[in-house]
Amino acid sequence: DLFAGIGGFRLGMEAAGHECVGFCEIDKFARASYKAIHDTRGEIELHDITAVSDESIRRIGRVDIICGGFPCQAFSIAGARRGFEDTRGTLFFEIARFASILRPQHLFLENVKGLLNHENGITFETIISTLDELGYNVEWQVLNSKNFGVPQNRERVFIIGHLRGASTRRIFPLSSTGRQVDKYQEQSTNTLTTRYPNSQGVGSYIIESESQRVRSIGNVNPSGNGMNGEVYESTGLAPTLTTNKGEGVKIIQRAHGYSYQENNLVKIVDFYNKITKDEVGTLTSSGGGSTVRTGSFGVTDGYRIRKLTPRECWRLQGFPDWAFDKAQEVNSNSQLYKQAGNSVTVNVISAIAKEFR
After folding, report:
1. Please, which residues have CB within 8 angstroms of residue 316's CB and are 6 or more apart in sequence?
2. Reported pTM
3. Is pLDDT at 88 greater than 70 in this prediction?
4. Could you list the active site residues?
């Protein structure tokens, strides 16, 4: 499990019946979450992949699959797209180094969709050529997380390398109308639920994974740039998660209220005195009386804008709540947001992993 992060590859692979023998992750905070979530006792643990010697790799022994979501910032349209000029871009060749020594039957890699057209395709051609020289036949497909039971519009390219002569069969294409994807769609549930305490009780706010609709509501970012400035409906798909502390996705939603009776009422608000009432006397040009200013009364429909919680971001990536709970014990919210944005979607990994034979 290379560039392991918080173990999105691992969870998906284990769900398909595979067993992890070792992992490599340089970020100490991600490593803390990984080890809190997964039982890594007796496994090989590596940190800085560039500092791992060839001899250390040989001591790993036999493996069937190398997984790796190698750093994508160098190829992402959200970044400078410097590719192999960027130190992070060269880390692909560390995967190639591991493969050249361990000779697994499969390589299972992930990156941003922009990798395919970076430098007019030259970068991707370099990757394919490198794997070919190592003795791997390569196939790839762009898959969207929204087709695998999570309400996130996240397109990623998945690359499978088959060791020539190992009698492996093709994995792709996985179709949105195929058996694997349909199974995940059937399991779709209201996955994102967050509860906010209130003096009157508890309210529930849900993002529904069944909906395929996203509508941009407004711009809350003064710069007006990127998806940070977009507000999305709570019944739609979230855009791709980022690592910027959860600020990338804001949703507009109607509060469900704190009692059955409240759900059916329009709120009348005395904005000056900050009082919410279910009813008020006749509105006049001077407001509601001598104690308030002109125009201080108004009607509100109960909508609010908020950012996603760390737990919701982890759910958007297909992580179960028990995994988030363990990671939350060892990391801050800012790290949990970053880790969700950097991760792969577990559901997609699991669907692909079931095809390895």
Report:
1. 145, 150, 151, 152, 191, 192, 238, 241, 308, 340, 345
2. 0.75
3. no
4. 72
